[in-house]
Amino acid sequence: MNCPYCGKPMRPGWIETRGERLSWTPHGEKKGGWRWSVSSHGIPLGKYSFFRGCRAAADYCSACRKIILSGIDL
Ligand SMILES: [Zn+2]
């Protein structure tokens, strides 16, 4: 994928955890007390496994230092 800001090729990779679920949380909400919790209007990112954690595909632009999630797996 090319960076939508500068047009240069982006480096593919992952944003990942060991045990926690990744999610986007809107301002004013809290994620919750469990490591797999997602806030009421939050968006889970990547596939979650209780033992392996979570991994969301993401591309990185070294010129802009921006990371873009490649997609949202529910
Ligand atoms: Zn860029």
Our count of domains comes out at 1
> Gap between N and C termini, in Å?
22 Å
Q: Count of helical segments?
A: 0
Regions with little confidence, pLDDT below 50 for 5+ residues: none
Give a count of the beta strands, DSSP E runs of length 2 or more: 6
Write down the overall mean pLDDT: 92
Name the overall outline: globular
- CA radius of gyration is 14 Å
Order of helices and strands: EEEEEE
Task: Provide structural commentary.
This protein is an all-beta fold and 74 residues long. 0% of the residues lie in helices and 38% in strands. The chain has strands at residues 11-16, 22-24, 43-45, 47-49, 53-61, 66-69. Strands 1, 4, 5 and 6 form a four-stranded antiparallel sheet that branches. A hairpin with a 3-residue loop joins strand 4 (47-49) and strand 5 (53-61). The mean pLDDT is 92.
In short:
By secondary structure, this protein is mostly beta strands. Helix content is 0%, strand content 38%. The chain has one domain.
